[in-house]
Specification:
Strand content of chain A: under 5%
Protein name (chain A): Sugar ABC transporter permease
CATH architecture of the largest domain in chain A: Orthogonal Bundle
Subcellular location (chain A): Cell membrane
Number of strands of chain B: 2
Helix content of chain A: over 70%
Helix content of chain B: over 70%
Shape of chain A: globular
CATH class of the largest domain in chain A: Mainly Alpha
Family (chain A): Belongs to the binding-protein-dependent transport system permease family.
Largest interface: A-B, 91 and 96 residues
Order of helices and strands of chain B: HHHHEEHHHHHHHHHHHHHH
Distance between the termini of chain B: 48 Å
CATH architecture of the largest domain in chain B: Orthogonal Bundle
Oligomer: heterodimer
Pfam family, one (chain A): BPD_transp_1
Main location (chain A): membrane
Strand content of chain B: under 5%
Number of domains of chain B: 2
Structural class of chain A: mainly alpha
Number of helices of chain A: 14
Shape of chain B: globular
CATH superfamily of the largest domain in chain A: MetI-like
CATH topology of the largest domain in chain A: MetI-like fold
Number of domains of chain A: 2
């Protein structure tokens, strides 16, 4: 496609304008986090603080048990990712590589769970976890991940459907059993899509607010999202530490995203078709 | 072999069944490795049955985790909440059957139900088209053959990985009517900014702006789809004298209609369930102007402890989502073109 000069100028102008919308809030949060209390409430607002107070971050971190929140978030994120990888790869393999009775009905059921609004099952799930004695523990946030989730299963299945059938037939002739075929042959090929599942899960779980809000009541069990939200509610005027901790919370998924960008772009193109 | 034959004779069932019986009979005769080899040959001969003794149970073992999870974490709770919706169910004390009482209360005795429903629909009506438009525009921008496009792609996607909690804190500070930087920037342009989060007329707009910040996922979905459109199509259109706008309307849009459909459905569902942002950014206010349906259900359950009523509310939204999805699918046949259809059409034409 040929590109005229005028065309180029329009494109760049739009790109820069949109970049402002997407980047400025981060930048403003950082500027705020580095200011002094006086600077924050001065008008007109200052865009460059006199001295960048990185000590604000340390003070904010120590003002609440953010270390505990961070640890809890890491536990939940790591455990759910392990759970999703194991369960979703098994289930996706079952749906993609075998024919069995009721397969289509079961698969439609699986897909339809994506349409169920979360508040329909919210109350019974709470009662169920209460019955298990799991309220105010991290278990309600972790355990369900070991039973798969529709979107991830769908994603992996789409990938597995495209692999020729000869692969497992050859292995069967060599005497491999069905689980060995899955474990030794298919799992290694699924590295790309499995990375995508892990990344999507990390971002989703790290950011989850409603789950912890409903199931956790003790501060020592809070995750980052819940801890930060309750911090915001407690001290409305403490905008500096709030901004500092908001940035701390944002950093892990951003890092994960930078490393896995390739998988996200590639994975999304595979999943829709 | 003989056992198989005998079974065939003994059991005059339909063809597929005799084949299964045949497999069963044979399964006991051969040793294991032999059996595997035989099975493969058998499978090849009879594509119709496709599976054999060993492989018959194995698939269910693979999908077992999901089946258990579905029963325990989805179907069970789903059925139970339907039951609850017909009860007056306080958090302590006994539940009492009230028939359709909860639904009657919803439609006749609770003005907040209509308010929340209307606000949510209004939000969806603004948010979904706007979000689609921005996502598509951004996707088009980042598919332009210009240097540095990967950087812009990263910038546009970045907010999509950020927590709703962080989004509401950051935007709440920007929208702050006293110290907020947005109104200061507007004043530099000679405009007086509204009191975003305090004025009931503007609060929904703030939610829309903050939600649209996460448009990156949808943009990427469009982006990968647009990238996949064969270049020949554009070349052909170009030879026919089509300019960039004409090419967009006649080539790009028709090629991505399935993706548009996918994005419409997912964003409608997401919009109708928006909760985190209203919970943290506005708390439903001011004057309940952002008391979205999700918040209405949440508060009925965990604040007012009317579990039965909240279940009825939730089921009503579930039905709306089902109907809307169905409606979008039904109407989609008029404007969505699938690649396979086109291919079939072409082949037919050539013949």
């Amino acid at each position: 496609m040929k590109i005229t000069r005028k065309h180029k100028i329009i494109v760049y102008t739009l790109l820069v304008l949109f970049s402002l919308y997407f980047l400025f809030p981060f930048l403003w949060a950082l500027i705020t986090a580095l200011k002094t209390q006086q600077e924050v409430f001065s008008y007109p607002p200052k865009f460059i603080p006199d001295a960048a107070l990185f000590s604000n971050f340390i003070e904010a971190w120590n003002s609440q048990p953010f270390g505990v929140y961070f640890k809890n978030s890491v536990i939940v994120t790591v455990m759910t990712t392990i759970g999703q990888l194991i369960s979703c790869s098994l289930v996706a393999y079952g749906f993609a590589r075998y024919d069995f009775k009721f397969k289509n009905i079961l698969f439609i059921l699986l897909l339809s769970t994506m349409m169920i609004p979360w508040d329909v099952t919210m109350i019974p799930l709470y009662m169920e976890f209460n019955m298990f004695g799991w309220i105010n523990t991290l278990k309600p946030l972790i355990v369900p991940a070991f039973f798969g989730s529709a979107y991830n299963i769908f994603l992996l299945r789409q990938f597995l459907m495209n692999i020729p059938k000869d692969l497992e037939n050859a292995a069967r002739i060599d005497g491999a059993n069905e689980f060995q075929i899955f474990y030794k042959i298919f799992l290694p090929i699924m590295k790309g899509p499995l990375t995508l599942v892990a990344v999507l899960n990390i971002i989703l779980v790290w950011n989850d607010y409603l789950g912890p809000l409903i199931y956790l009541s003790d501060q020592s069990k809070y995750t980052m999202a819940l801890g930060l939200a309750s911090f915001q509610g407690l001290h409305e005027l403490q905008i500096i530490p709030i901004m500092a901790m908001t940035l701390v919370m944002v950093i892990p998924p951003v890092i994960v995203f930078f490393f896995a960008q390739k998988y996200i772009v590639e994975g999304l193109s595979g999943s829709i078709k | 072999m003989h056992t198989g034959m005998v079974l065939c004779i003994q059991d005059p069932s339909p063809l597929s069944r005799t084949k299964q019986a045949w497999v069963k009979g044979r399964g006991f005769l051969f040793n294991r490795s032999n059996q595997l080899k035989r099975e493969i040959m058998f499978t090849k001969k009879n594509k119709h049955t496709g599976f054999t003794l060993v492989r018959k149970r194995v698939p269910y073992l693979f999908i077992l985790p999901w089946i258990i999870g579905y029963l325990v974490f989805t179907l069970g709770p789903l059925a139970f909440s339907l039951v609850m919706s017909f009860f007056d169910w306080p958090i302590t004390g006994d539940a009492e059957f009230v028939g359709i009482g909860n639904f009657a209360k919803m439609f006749t005795g609770d003005p907040q139900f209509y308010n929340s429903l209307l606000i949510t629909l209004k939000f969806a009506l603004i948010f979904v088209p706007l979000n689609l438009f921005i996502a598509l525009l951004l996707a088009l921008l980042i598919t332009q053959p210009i240097k540095g496009m990967e950087i812009f792609r990263t910038i546009f996607y970045l907010p999509a990985v950020v927590s709703g909690v962080a989004v509401s804190i950051i935007w709440g500070w920007i929208f702050n009517s006293e110290y907020g930087v947005l109104n200061y920037l507007l004043s530099l342009l000679g405009m007086e900014g509204p009191r975003w989060l305090i004025d009931p007329k503007w609060a929904v707009v703030t939610i829309v702006i903050a939600s649209a910040w996460g448009v990156g996922t949808m943009m990427l979905i469009f982006y990968t789809d647009i990238k996949g459109i064969p270049n020949e199509l554009y070349e052909a259109a170009s030879i026919d004298g089509a300019g960039p706008i004409r090419q967009f309307i006649s080539v790009t849009i028709p090629s991505i209609t399935p993706t548009i459909l996918f994005n419409v459905i997912t964003s409608v569902i997401a919009a109708l369930q928006q909760l985190t942002l209203v919970l943290l950014l506005t708390g439903g206010g001011p004057l309940k102007s952002t008391y979205f349906y999700g918040l209405f259900v949440y508060n009925n359950a965990f604040k007012h402890h009317e579990l039965g009523y909240a279940s009825a509310n939730a089921w009503f939204m579930f039905l709306i989502i089902l109907l809307l999805t169905l409606l979008i699918f039904k109407t989609s046949s008029t404007w969505v073109f699938y690649e396979t259809e086109v291919k079939k059409g072409k082949k037919g034409g050539r013949k």
